[in-house]
Amino acid sequence: MPSTADIQAGLAEILEEVAGVAPADATPEKSFTDDLDVDSLSMVEIATAVEDKFGVAIPDDELANIKTVGDAMSFIEKNQG
Amino acid sequence: MSTPTADVVVTGLGATTPLGGDVASTWEALLAGRSGVSRITDDWAKDFPAQLVARLTIEPAEVLDRVRIRRLDRSQQVAVIAAEEAWRDAAGADSGVDPLRVAVVFGTGIGGAVTLLDQDDILEAKGPKRVSPFTIPMLMPNGPAAAVGLAVGARAGVHAPVSACASGAEAIRWGLDLLRLDRADMVVVGGTEACVHPLPMAGFSAMRAMSTRNDEPERASRPFDKGRDGFVLGEGAAALVLERADAAKARGAKIHARLAGAGGTADGYDLVAPHPEGEGAGRAITAAIRDAGLTAADIGHVNAHATSTPIGDTAEAAAIRDAIGDHPLVTATKSQTGHLLGAAGALESVFTILALREQLVPATANLDDPDDDAAVQALDIVRRDARKATFSAALNDSFGFGGHNMALVFTTV
After folding, report:
1. Which pLDDT belongs to residue A2?
2. Of the residues A44, B38, B44, B96, which has the fewest C-beta atoms closer than 10 A?
């Protein structure tokens, strides 16, 4: 089971690939839209990539509640199998 | 206050083409007689009747950041590259122009077909959840115009004429109109195409429109030549920055040429076949010359659409001879670039402007044995070597499946 640090690193990789976010910027308090300039279509791509990487599917209604990198980390941590 | 007769000038040029990654390298390769055409070596092409293509010399991924490469269809990527070069050339960012007064008109013939087809493969293989959320913005035909609009921060309006191979020229005409109507102060105009993929290749082949001279790639595109047997599909984009002459002069902008007039007509003859005598094409040419306040005698050079198809080239030759006469120096640059479809009118406008500026008409490659057609025989088509000449007005025409005819007149400043 990946640790919190692993999850953060994995998310950072996804953010860099999908949205060009520098890995150092992918810290828990960062808002996807306000701080990292990630738009709604990119959030959909991120959700798909999270499912591939961590085996955690994010339903659309949950995706709407994920505002920060920390929110995404918590969701993955709680739901991984 | 501008009037419908406001002088409009070209202050920026950009291009990425099968001859080079920018305007300077493309022009140099054109004058050097280099060909952008090669034979497709991918397995899928093995059984294709037409296996030739004119690909970009510089891959977009070498120029644009990774995120834009991921989110933009290839036709949008090259549009942005060309537009950003033109915008830099015009010093648009330093011009002090209000973004609310900057517009974009960017056309494409086919649009994001490669995205559509690639995503359909994903749909078939992996199901709907795996289809990219960027599929629609990548395939929509206004996508290139929208991407260029974001790149230059245009907020007066973003428009996307779609008229097959006349799209790029039509975009330039719309830009002229926007400035004459005072709907913008600067307009980035152009055309783009990147649809090298088995399906468009098969479709054009099925129309018998493409050259099958597969063993001689560099000799395949041969406008006006007796041995021509179709066009060669090319990819790339070209862009121009237009503004009113008074504003350009006031800010001390470098002025490449004046966009003096434009004309557009429809054949009303057949869905894809041109009128055999180029009736609609000739009317577009005449309208553009009249719009420029000139007469046919003033036109010293024509960059012809001349795609190297058997029917199209003779129809155009008739249109040029009948509407202008036998005096202009004619060239057909698709002999080296291939046919960039929706980008063709924009790229050939760039060539027309450079020819005007340098008083030098590039040669038509592969014109070894001009067609016996009377109109082709009547024209003074530049061949073998570029020709020096003195002229103050030049015309670029473009025609598209659907019976679209466009003509643009550029003059020296």
Report:
1. 85
2. B96
Of B67, B130, B132, the CB nearest to A19: B67
pLDDT of residue B5: 63
pLDDT at A81 over 90: no
Mean pLDDT score of chain B = 97
Cβ distance A20 to B137 less than 8 Å, yes or no, reads no
How buried is B127 (Cβ within 10 angstroms: 0-12 exposed, 13-18 middle, 19+ buried)? exposed
Preferred mutation among A37, A45, A63 to probe B, highest tally of B CBs within 10 A: A45
* Euclidean distance between CA atoms B221 and B382, whole angstroms: 16
B380-381 vs B37-39, strand pairing mode: unpaired
Q: Is B305 part of the annotated catalytic residue set?
A: yes
How many Cβ atoms sit within 10 Å of the Cβ of residue B370?
17
Architecture of domain B262-411 in this structure: 3-Layer(aba) Sandwich (3.40)
Task: Choose, from B256, B275, B339, B404, the residue flagged as catalytic.
Answer: B339
User: CB–CB of B66 and A41 under 8 A?
Assistant: no
B195 is catalytic: no
pLDDT in tens, B182-225: 999 999 999 999 999 999 999 999 999 999 999 999 999 999 99
Active site residue B339: yes
Q: Of residues B159, B256, B301, B305, which has the active-site annotation?
A: B305
Q: Which residues of B touch A44 (CB under 8 A)?
A: 133
* pLDDT single digits (tens) A28-49: 999 999 999 999 999 999 999 9
Instruction: Tally Cβ neighbours within 10 Å of residue B240.
Output: 31
Beta-sheet strand order (sheet of B257-266): B157-159, B102-108, B186-193, B236-244, B8-16, B257-266, B404-411, B393-400, B301-303, B329-331, B380-381
**Does pLDDT of B112 surpass 80?**
yes
- Identify the pLDDT of residue B1: 46
Domain ranges of chain A: 4-17+28-79
Q: Where in chain B is the domain with CATH 3.40.47.10?
A: 8-250, 262-411
**Which CATH number, 3.40.630.30, 1.10.1200.10, 2.60.130.10, 3.40.50.1820, labels domain A4-17+28-79?**
1.10.1200.10
